[in-house]
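Entry for biotin complex. Fields follow.
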Amino acid sequence: MFNVPADADRLKKLGIIGFRFLEETGSTNDDALAWAEQGAADGSLVVADTQTRGRGRLDRQWVTSPGSALAMSLILRPTPAEAAQAGLFAGLGAVAVAEALEQGWGLKPQIKWPNDVLLGGKKACGILSEAAWSGSHLQTVVLGIGVNVAPSSVPLQEALLFPAICIEAAAGRTVERQDVLERIMERLFFWRPALGSVEFLDAWNRRLAFRGQAVQIVMPGYNINGEVMEVDSAGGLRLCRSDGNVETVLAGDVHLRPAGNGR
Ligand code: ATP
Ligand code: BTN
């Protein structure tokens, strides 16, 4: 997949300080968390061709098929200002992926709060932001990004709660994974210094899926219905209830569904 020395050199110019490529691994997020524990620098990246235990939020399975997907985890060492905005990292990844797909392939991605990128209303990318703390100090954020690039990366529909798609199907042409990776990293390091700014939140909100539409937020033992308004400065989703009250939902054990979708 990667011509490691030459590609690592190009990645360095984009801000990738260290680079590990694995043909097969369990989860690149686990690898990145372990590497961070051993002292990996801010901007270190783990990429794998395939994952055998790729995961999404709440330990749900993320499928990464060989030769057709991007599975990568970026190690960030948050500054104090970034640490105060830890709820925005998944959004940072989502905005970076969305802009990469727009600029590279003229696509019109939408961001399904809190952590997915959709193409034509179907999931093309999932983001898993995980943190490692030392007491109250946020030492590490591992930003895991999984992207479906070629058709064989798309899992069988029966296995999914939400429909899936890949970039090649949306773009109607062949797409190089290396190109997707580099474009995502370029946008990610572009937006990182602006995390939490008005411009960043605007870049997120402009692409927010279901905006102005009725959705259901599914939580353990409790659902909220409302109309999607916007993402707030902490990364929470503001919803307008039918009684006019505004409720803010934080990412966590929640799932967003279009209203009327019983699953
Ligand atoms: P959803 O709305 O799909 O439940 P979610 O964001 O709440 O999304 P996550 O935990 O983020 O759920 O994502 C994991 C889910 O993504 C899995 O349960 C599976 O249905 C789906 N999935 C797994 N692999 C892929 C893939 N390669 N492409 C698209 N969807 C996938
Ligand atoms: C989700 O939709 O819940 C997030 C999926 C995140 C998948 C990526 S693939 C690279 C990294 N390694 C993992 O095990 N998960 C993330």
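NOTE: The chain has seven helices and twelve strands.
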